[in-house]
Design brief:
Elements: H1 3-6, H2 11-26, H3 29-36, E1 37-40, E2 43-47, E3 53-57, E4 64-69, H4 73-84, E5 90-96, E6 106-111, H5 118-132, E7 139-144, H6 148-151, H7 161-174, H8 178-186, E8 205-211, H9 234-243, H10 250-253, H11 256-266, E9 283-289, H12 291-303, E10 308-311, H13 320-329, E11 341-347, H14 364-375, E12 383-390, E13 402-405, H15 407-416, H16 420-425, H17 429-435, E14 439-440, E15 451-458
Parallel strand pairs: 4-5, 4-7, 5-6, 7-8, 8-9, 10-11
Antiparallel strand pairs: 1-2, 2-3, 11-15, 12-13, 12-15, 13-14
Length: about 475
C-alpha cells in the first residue's frame, strides 16, 4: 500500500513526495555527466554549474584513465564510458557494497561506508597503481561524489586502519560537522587534502568531476578534496580532536593516531599541499551537481501544481532535533487565503549520539520528523505534510531514507501511545516512525547531494478516519 493511501491521500503528501522524486531524479549522476560533457568527433567540451568551461581534443592524449570514489561514482563512470565510446585505457573506482554496475575498462571495488574497511584500502591501492603509470601526455578523470572519504581510505604511514575506524566512528558520533570530520581525515591520509595528485606524473592533465554532498559546496571538503589544495593544517586537526574530547580518551592517546598528529604538529610529517603548489598546475576541479539543483527541481515540481513555494536555501545544519522544531514552526500562522503554500529546505544536520548508553536505529531526517511531531498540533481537517529524506536513500544506520509527518501521523502517535521524547532520547526514530507508517523507503538512489525537507500546506479538507 502506498504512503498516500496509508495517509488518507493527502494532496499535500502527494505533491511533496512527487517533488522529492523529481529532485532526486534531477541529480542522478548519469544525467549530470551527460549535461556537463559533450563529445563531437574528438572535441570534448566540459562545463560545470559555476560557469567554468574547457575544451579538449582527446586525440591529443596518449591514454585516458578514470579513477574515483563515492556513492554516485559508479553511475558517473558508466555515463563517462558511454560518452568516450571505448577511449578509456584503464580505470579503478571505489563504491559502496551492493553496486551492480559493471564496466569493461574500469575496475570496480566495493567497500564500506561510512566506516572504512580493508576492501576500500585495496581498491585505493589499485587507484594509486594506475596513477603511478601516467605520463605527461595522458588525461585523468577523477570522479568524486559523497561518501568518497570513507570509500577511498589510504592511511598515512604507520597509521593502523583499526585506529582510523575508531576515530571515524567517534567523530561521526560526536556531532562534529562534515567539514571538521574531513579536516581530521585529510591529516590521517596519503591521498586526501590534495595528496592524490602527488601520485600522478607531473604535467599530466587532471579533470575532477565533482558531485557535492557538503553545505556550501566547498570542493576541498567533498570526499576530503583528493585533488584540491588544502588550507587546513595539523594544528586544525588537533584542535577539532580536542574540541570533541577525542584526545581525552586514554586508549586513543596511546594509538597511532595520536603519534601521527603529534609528528604533524612537530613538522616531521609534511602537511597537505597548499594553494599555489605547482602540483596543481594542470588540475581542474569542476562541480557538476549539488543540493541547490535538486531543491530547484523540487520547487519547479510544486509550482506546476499551482502551489506558491519558498525555497529557504540549501545551508541548513545544526542538530536534527532543532531542525525538526523549525519545520514545525513553519506549519503555523497561515491565513486560508495564502494557501496552498510550500517550503523547500536543503542541507544536512547532525545527530549527537549517546556516549553512555545504547543508541537505537535512525538518522538525522527521521529524528527531525520525530522532533517536529512533538511540536505540531494539526487538526483533522488540515491537509499538511512534512517530508525529509537523504538524497542517497539511506538515513543514518537504518534502511529508511527519511520520514514524513501528516495529521494521520499525529493521530497514530496518540492512538498507539508512543512516547516521542523517549524515542528521541534514545535516537530510535526509525523504530518509532515505522510503527506509525511514517517512514520513507526508497533504497539506494545512486546519488548523494545532502538532504531535502519539504513542507506542503493545502487548503483544509474533511477526512474520515
Amino acid at each position: 500500500m502506498s504512503l498516500e493511501r496509508r495517509h488518507h491521500a493527502y494532496h499535500s503528501l502527494k505533491y511533496a513526495l512527487g517533488a522529492l522524486e523529481s529532485a532526486i531524479m534531477s541529480v542522478q549522476p548519469e544525467i549530470l555527466i551527460r549535461r556537463s560533457l559533450k563529445l563531437r568527433d574528438s572535441k570534448l567540451s566540459i562545463s560545470d554549474i559555476k560557469g567554468n568551461t574547457a575544451e579538449l581534443d582527446i586525440d591529443n592524449f596518449e591514454s585516458i584513465f578514470v579513477v574515483g570514489a563515492g556513492k554516485g561514482t559508479a553511475k558517473m563512470a558508466e555515463a563517462l564510458s558511454h560518452i568516450l565510446k571505448g577511449k578509456i585505457t584503464h580505470g579503478a573506482i571505489n563504491v559502496p557494497y551492493g553496486n551492480k554496475t559493471r564496466l569493461d575498462s574500469i575496475y570496480i571495488t566495493e567497500a564500506n561506508h561510512p566506516i572504512p574497511d580493508e576492501a576500500g584500502v585495496e581498491g585505493t591501492k589499485k587507484i594509486i597503481d594506475i596513477l603511478k603509470k601516467t605520463h605527461t601526455s595522458d588525461l585523468v578523470f577523477v570522479l568524486i561524489s559523497g561518501g568518497g572519504s570513507a570509500l577511498m581510505p589510504f592511511p598515512i604511514d604507520n597509521l593502523k586502519l583499526d585506529d582510523k575506524k575508531k576515530i571515524t566512528s567517534k567523530m561521526l558520533a560526536s556531532g562534529a560537522s562534515i567539514d571538521e570530520i574531513n579536516i581530521v581525515r585529510k591529516h590521517l591520509s596519503l591521498i586526501k587534502g590534495g595528496r592524490l595528485v602527488r601520485f600522478v606524473k607531473r604535467g599530466c592533465t587532471i579533470f575532477s568531476l565533482i558531485l557535492s554532498d557538503v553545505i556550501g559546496d566547498n570542493i576541498s571538503t567533498i570526499a576530503s578534496g583528493p585533488t584540491v589544495p588544502d588550507n587546513s593544517t595539523f594544528k586544525d586537526a588537533a584542535f577539532i580532536l580536542q574540541k570533541y574530547h577525542i584526545f581525552n580518551n586514554k586508549t586513543l592517546e596511546k594509538s597511532s593516531l595520536f603519534t601521527i598528529i603529534k609528528k604533524g604538529l612537530e613538522g616531521s610529517i609534511d602537511d597537505t599541499p597548499k594553494p599555489g603548489n605547482s602540483i596543481f598546475n594542470n588540475v581542474y576541479n569542476f562541480l557538476i551537481g549539488n543540493n541547490t539543483l535538486a531543491c530547484n527541481k523540487a520547487v519547479e515540481s510544486l509550482r506546476k501544481n499551482n502551489i506558491q513555494v519558498l525555497h529557504l536555501g540549501s545551508s541548513f545544519n545544526g542538530q536534527a532535533i532543532d531542525f525538526g522544531k523549525l519545520l514545525a514552526r513553519l506549519t503555523t500562522d497561515f491565513a486560508i487565503s495564502s494557501l496552498p503554500i510550500a517550503f523547500v529546505l536543503g542541507g544536512e544536520t547532525t545527530v549527537k549520539l549517546n556516549k553512555r548508553r545504547e543508541n537505537g536505529k535512525g538518522g538525522r531526517n527521521q529524528e527531525a520528523i520525530l522532533s517536529a511531531a512533538t511540536k505540531c498540533r494539526f487538526e483533522d481537517r488540515d491537509d499538511i505534510a512534512i517530508v525529509s529524506m537523504g538524497t542517497d536513500g539511506i538515513d543514518g544506520n537504518s534502511m529508511a531514507a527519511g520520514g514524513l509527518l501528516t495529521p494521520k501521523t499525529l493521530y497514530l502517535i496518540q492512538k498507539i501511545g508512543i512516547n516521542l521524547k523517549k524515542y528521541l532520547k534514545n535516537h530510535d526514530s526509525y523504530t518509532a516512525l515505522k510503527k506509525i507508517d511514517s517512514s520513507i523507503f526508497s533504497g539506494r538512489t545512486g546519488t548523494n547531494v545532502n538532504d531535502i525537507a519539504i513542507i506542503c500546506i493545502m487548503k483544509t479538507l474533511k477526512l474520515n478516519r
